[in-house]
Design brief:
By secondary structure, the protein is an all-alpha fold. The chain is built from seven helices and no strands. It catalyses: Fe(III)-heme b-[protein] + nitric oxide + H2O = Fe(II)-heme b-[protein] + nitrite + 2 H(+); H2O2 + AH2 = A + 2 H2O; 2 superoxide + 2 H(+) = H2O2 + O2; Fe(II)-heme b-[protein] + nitric oxide + O2 = Fe(III)-heme b-[protein] + nitrate.
Length: 154
């Protein structure tokens, strides 16, 4: 298994960046999903209960979109808390990856899409430094998820 490639200083600054956006986990998580569904409409097809939601406004108001936005942010938050412990980190990422690969059959490219949107939102709200300090974390998450997908035969 590969270990994390982040230094202690990088872990600390990534946590600082994440905290800024995680303070409003539900709103920001929702904003990320709404942007993903709007800019990449094919991603919506995985969520059968989101099909009828056409406008960004409808999506923003939807309890189901809000609930999933919060869930995504909670999962990332768990990963961010364990960036300095690869065993604990993988303990979170592995079941999540397996579930998305085997049960939900989500194309792994969508993880990169959602991570890029999170980085965009960070930059818009808190500037380029914030985005830069979180970029390595998103690469780490996507790399591990892709590895899990390969193990599951994608």
């Amino acid at each position: 298994s590969s270990t994390m490639s982040l230094s202690e200083a990088e872990v600390q600054s990534a946590r600082g960046a994440w905290e800024k956006i995680y303070v409003d986990a539900e709103d920001n998580g929702t904003a990320v999903l709404v942007r993903m569904f709007t800019e990449h409409p094919d991603t919506k097809s995985y969520f059968t209960h989101f099909k009828g939601l056409d406008s960004a406004e409808e999506m923003k108001q939807s309890d189901q979109v809000r609930g999933h936005g919060k869930k995504v942010f909670s999962a990332i938050n768990d990963m961010v808390q364990h960036l300095d412990n690869s065993e604990a980190f993988l303990g979170i990422v592995t079941p999540l990856g397996k579930k998305h690969a085997t049960q939900l059959k989500i194309d792994p490219k969508n993880f990169r899409i959602i991570c890029d949107i999170i980085l965009q939102l960070m930059e818009e709200k808190f500037g380029g430094d914030c985005k830069a300090s979180f970029e390595k974390v998103t690469n780490e998450i996507c790399t591990h998820l892709n590895n899990i997908y390969k193990e599951e035969g994608w």
